[in-house]
Design a protein that fits this description.
Radius of gyration: 13 Å
Distance between the termini: 23 Å
Strand content: 15-25%
Number of strands: 5
Order of helices and strands: EHEEEHEH
Number of helices: 3
Mean pLDDT: 92
Helix content: 40-55%
Largest sheet: 5 strands, mixed
Structural class: alpha/beta
Low-confidence stretches: none
Length: 111
Amino acid sequence: MRGYSVITKRSDFLTANRGKRYATPGFVLLVKDRQDETAEIRLGITITKKVGNAVIRNRMRRRFRALAQEMLADKGKAGADHILIGRDSGIERDFDALRSDMVKALGKLCG
């Protein structure tokens, strides 16, 4: 069980862009409270073509999903949308470093 649902609509991504943000070397995390009655945690992942080809972007997406599955249910904000935006250095970054960045970002934005 992953503990979150997936954001698919572009309008939800644009709405979340107005939320709080925390930048790390590997990614940018956006958190926006939806202001509705549901306590559902939602996740969206976006990685531009500037980062690399499809193989690199998909590898990065898998790493982000693994991070989210590991941490979002415990440290994420209930009733909020969480958006992970991939950066160039995110694919070379060690997974433990990404994990510590995610803990820091979630603590800052959701704590």
